[in-house]
Design goal:
Helix content is 38%, strand content 22%. The chain has 13 helices and 15 strands.
Length: 429
Amino acid sequence: MQTWGDGDVDALLVSHAQIPIDMMWDDPLLARGLRILGRSLRVTACDLRGWGSSEQIHGPVPALQAWMDDIEAVTNAVASKRSAIVASAASVAPALLFAATHPERVSSLVLVSPFACYVRDDHYPLGMPSDLLDAGVRWFCESIGRGSTVALMSPSRADDPLFRSWALRCERLSLGPGGPQRAALVDLFMRADVRGVLPNVTVPTLVIHRVDDRFVRLHHAEYLVEHLPNARLLKLPGADHLWNSGDVEALFAATAAFVSGAPSDRAPGDRALATILFTDIVGATERAHGLGDRSWRVALERYEERAARHVESFRGRVVKSTGDGTLAVFDGPARAIECACALRDATAADDLPIRVGIHTGEVELMRDDIGGIAVHIAARVLGLAAAHEVLVSSSVPPLVAGAGIRFEDRGTHTLKGVAEPWAVFAALV
């Protein structure tokens, strides 16, 4: 983590995966851009987990959630209550997720060469076919540190021997020691999919893209602008992907001007992206009848205490008791699933089976409650679950990539009171 500048507005620069923060100031052109930011902003730069000199990722990790946690940790470390976030390429996904989940912590976004989804599917023909991406990830990982990627990422500087030497050092430091871990990390962030959260990102957003970028095509940026509620697109000439190539001064000057003057016409924190978890004790009425009122009240109080402890331990918040279950919210879907499965296993040992429904969506934040269609969707998903089952809506799986959580398709359902049908999956943990 590095901090410079003494402006009145805080900005967090989430470094590009190929430019570790240890190396930023060694490139004269990039250093010029960073100084432009520092003239009007207090800038903090960081590498996310698994990149550069930051902590490496070991074992299954919900990467988007972990990277969002890193953003929160860095802004807390510099005592920033509200920051603009400047992100590029792979770091765009956690920046968008953080802005949707914690709108009160984000004043604006600047997204450079961004994509919300890189892989083609039936609903996203702009992406790259999955088999071609597999080959591309293999080529990229084999080429790191050998100079093969420079012409793709920074064609305007590819013939500069000093820049090539600097870029090669960056590549060797950028993604850890290499091998399977590097390939897994690159594949993970190239397959991240945050299309579902775009309508929930309401902060002012500037999308900057060079029109002939061959690594992330312009149509990815155009898609983002079309689906973000408060975004505009700045097209810059050239084919460079990295933000330290091409007209660097124009890119960083536009960033500084936007962050310094971006107004927000919405009070922060009234709505936010959240993961909603509903639990329900299966057969509660029959159990209450069999145990009697006093014994049932004791069993229910024990369940509520256990649920509260589990939710707190997974960084969630209990909103309220639903009589025979719990409504809770989390800032990360992987934590919600892990909490649900741990609570399910704990209550099963007491012969008190529960079922769980989980959905990620925008909620209205009230003093002692939450509201909105997302809450209704989570409740309807709960209604489809059997005893000991944790069901999630289709909004959840794309956000827990890398966590080692498997999902089993439970079909597409028309949910009562919800306009569109939703696919539902069982979380297998």
